[in-house]
Amino acid sequence: MASATDLIPTSDPKFQRLRWRLLLSYLGVILGVTGISAIAVYQMVAQNLYRQVDSRLLTVAQTAAKSLALVKHEYREYEEQEDKDFSETGMQPNFNHPEYSRFLNIATVTLPDRDLGVEWFDESSLLLIREGNLFPDEVLQPTQSRYGQYFQEEKSRSLVFPVFLLNNKEKQELAGYIRATESLQNIEQELSRLRWGLAVGGILALGLAGISSFLLTNQALSPIEQSFEQLEQFTADASHELRSPLAAIKTAVFLLQGDTPDRPQAIAIIDSATQQMKALVEDLLLLARLDRQNANTHRDRIPIPLDEILEDILDEIDNQALEKQIAIKAEIAPNVMIMGHGTLLKRIFVNLIENALQYTPKGGKITVDLQTKDRQAWVRIQDTGIGIPPEQLPYIFDRFWRADKARDRRMGGMGLGLAIAQSLAIAHGGKIAVTSQPQIGSCFQVRLPLIHPSLEKTAR
Q1: Smallest Cα–Cα separation from 59: which of 173, 180, 230?
Q2: Can you tell me the distance from the alpha carbon of 356 to that of 434, in angstroms, rounded to the nearest whole number?
Q3: The whole model's pTM is what?
Q4: Which of 162, 173, 180, 148 is nearest to 56 (CA)?
Q5: Cβ atoms of residues 321 and 385 within 8 Å
Q6: What tens digit of pLDDT does each residue of 104-141 get?
Q7: Domains and CATH numbers, the chain
Q8: For 184, phi and psi rounded to 5 degrees?
Q9: How far is CA 445 from the centre of its chain?
Q10: Is the CB of residue 148 less than 8 Å from the CB of residue 160?
Q11: Distance between CA atoms of 332 and 144, rounded to whole angstroms?
Q12: Are 443 and 382 in contact, with CB atoms under 8 Å apart?
């Protein structure tokens, strides 16, 4: 059973390296996802802000385009009044002249309260008038696109919008251009704040991800480390269990090599040790098949009378109980049918009842009770044996586990009986629960699903 100590990092170098690889992998993935997400958010916000600027520039340019004809007319009048041909001389009108200011007031549009400028050009790209407080230094670049063309400088963005009017032949001809320009200062300020926010958020996210990754790494490795420790313990226990019969065989062989009258005894020792090793190997193979869920417990099942299995087991151990002067009391309900494998089911209760018999002292009592409840068969095996301390109860179904007192009382036991019983019960859709008090006794309760009602008549 896992405890709080299982979350403490192991000192094993293999797991330390694995822990760091997993931690760096988690952080790498999270950093990559966070970085890509931040870039995507930044790009979306930036594009949205620039789309808003483009939309405003287009609106201003389209509004200003409606006054281009009037601007050109007023411009020609202003030229005549000044007696100058600006288009030929390349000169620009005096935008600060009072007459020109009056002309501006007549011909221009109302601009929003922002860093924005609008310029009117004729078809030859001659600047006619301008209004606002922001104008690009670049020379006008004519365009024939009906939707205009956007140009961006370091701190501003402009739209050059061509204006087409109908001539006398009702054909559209180029009348001039509108260039609308807006400052990008506000956008850059917003994007700068966004970059700072994403950077601070990314650092916080990375810190939280680091803590989470550390916890997740420990949590992910905890069962692996526990399984590794169990495997090491399993190997050590299996080696210990095999050492005794192998030592006995070696001693018997030594006796057989000499001219000794103990030959029959040596052969008996070899036979006993061989049987012990065979039983151990068979138990280990059974557990391995159950671990792989390859014991065919879900196939070839047949209806099994559980009451008859229990009665057969009690008949078989009756002589052992008499020898130890242990009373066995049975209360077994009749006609209790479950689906399963008779041999495997019998192994569950043989292990549990023999366990109770071995750990119950002379003059004790064992009670075997079978009842049905909630579509389940309830088998209770209670003894008046030595009991199990509360701190050891979580480990009694571990393989090769035995309490020290139990090991002393049951020489030759391999500590696999309860593990096999639990695995077989689970394979049949059931489970085993246990309660115990030292020097008072233990109670094992097995619950198995009853046969489905639709199969009861066929089974009987």
Answers
A1: 180
A2: 12
A3: 0.49
A4: 180
A5: no
A6: 555 555 666 568 889 999 888 888 888 888 888 888 88
A7: 14-191 (no CATH), 302-459 (3.30.565.10)
A8: -100, 10
A9: 36
A10: yes
A11: 100
A12: yes
